Alkylphosphonate utilization protein
Amino acid sequence: MSALPPCPQCNSEYTYEDGVLYVCPECAHEWPAQGEAQTDDSPQVRDSVGNVLQDGDTVTVIKDLKVKGTSLVVKVGTKVKNIRLCEGDHDIDCKIDGIGAMKLKSEFVRKA
């Protein structure tokens, strides 16, 4: 008998260990092994006033931002919905109405 827990999504008994994760081969769900759930070493992304940002949040631009390579400008007060956090210097991936997909720095936005 396997001592590994069943998959929490599909209850499959065929789970296996992959490093610090358990993986279900039937539904491809991955979850942390017991004891690993409490350790979250990923840095938190914060906006200009210190609020923690998460995927799906809505933010407001606090400074006019020139779009590199074009004559477009993202104006102060522009609301950006459904952001995605990513790694790197520009840590917010989003789509702005009238401009399109772009990346923003979290220091130029405030959580709405």
Summary: The two ends are 51 Å apart (CA to CA).
